[in-house]
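Hello again,

I reread your note about wanting to compare the complex against the isolated chains. To keep things tidy I'm splitting this into two emails, and this first one only covers the full assembly. Below are the input lines as submitted, including protein chains and any nucleic acid or small-molecule components. They are followed by the predicted structure of everything together. The single-chain runs will come separately.
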Amino acid sequence: MKQLFTPFENVSKNTRLFIVLGWVVLLLGFWFVSSMGERHLFPSPQQVWQGFLELYNEGLVVHIGSSLLLCFSAIGIAIVISLVFSYLSTVPIIKPVAKTLSKLRYLPLTGITFYLAILISDARTMQVWVLVVFMSTYLTTSLLSMLNAIPQEEFDHARSLGCSRWEVLWEVVVKGRIDYVIDVIRQNLAIVWMMLVTVESILVAAGGLGFLIKNSDKFMNHGRIIALQIVILGVGLFIDFVLNYLRKAFFRYSKI
Amino acid sequence: MTYNMQNTLLYVEDLSVAYGDKVIIKDINLVEKDVIREGHITGQVIAVVGRSGRGKSTLFKALTGLVKPTSGKVLIANTQTGLDNDAKEVQEGDIGFVDQKYTLFRNKTVYETMLFALRRKEMTKAEKHTQIMQYLRDWGLENEKDQYPCELSGGQRQRTAVIEQIFCSGHYMVLDEPFSGLDVGNIEDVKKAFDLITASHEFNTIIYSTHDIELAVELADSIYVIGYPTIEGKRMDYGTIVKHFDMKELELAWKDYGLDHIEVVKQIKQVMLSS
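Full-complex prediction:
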């Protein structure tokens, strides 16, 4: 028992499972206790379950699909833009452009949506491009860090094998770091997922989880809001798991 | 043991490398010729020793064309023309380079690594396969052919890195501290690798650095000590060759390690400590 409270102590797999289960029980217990009585901050589990059922009957699955489609469209375009700039940042003339793109992550959302609203009339396209602009800056930042972390020895190794500079880029950076790119997407997906709900709640026309939250918020339906938060968290964690699984399954050498 | 020297294989003249204002190595001059011994195929084994920070790795990068010299030149024998003493300036890829970490492509299996190293050879796919499998058998890597670098032991990685460079470069190979961090078994593997390389072609030349002076004396037929020179009583802060031990001239090359070798070890250590 003492080892559970000792720093740097290794515990068995079963003990780890026991610890996690303990925390889950504690959390659920706290939820039940704190949601009893007349006045409470969080809705009771029954209210949340009720909210979930209502959402399901109102087409929750379709809204999840809509959000996922938006998410994948945006991340698809953003990753292409970021990869092009990041890979080409090895060329001196492109490097400042890539670095600037990375620095643009400090720009506020409102300013960007204002200009995008002028340029784009369709709500869905607008949602996609707001996310693309944001994601490209974060993805480029992560990809540039990945590039900088490649040891010089790997470049020298490729050069010693007679690779031209473009071959070095292709072999060491592009082919040699595909698993890292997947991990960068996985890590940044949390930001897209978080942004996605905000973007959907700004432009409600196309539906999605953000629209549902906004709708529930308007009527102060706490049960629905928490049910939606749990769904959003669950879908996000599932995507994270799938990407991590794909990286490990397709790239046996990947030990990130 | 009788021997004679023929074509110049490596010619380094007034080589200097500086990074910005910092001069790392300066005025390096060396000449290595093809050693001929009757009844033996004898490649050249050249050791470079010196204390840390004296510029060994920079010298190796300049020798392999990975770093452009600030001044001076590195010439190697142009074996393609078939003419005696035909030389060319070294370019990236002319000299194989195996670094201390035995760096390989992390996303290629041992077999894919070999195939990539042979990509420019004018051979059919079947010929390439036969050559790769032959080397993998000879070097004890047959069972590891589908393994990635992260799944190999230090010794296996090292052998893979050496074969890859043999396939890709011509007759020259530079190894930066190949014995560093290896256990006795792996050190024996590297020694065997040296034997395999030098016994396969007259022109094959291995240049390696080591902190293990005994291993340098045991294996090399030419040893260069790199250190800070003392000029007019003042010690400089750049590396250069401060002493050359020609083990052939000393009649210690290609012989079992003995008392005379130990004497050379002592001398080398003395030179290293004073530079």
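For quick reference: Chain B has a mean pLDDT of 90.

B.
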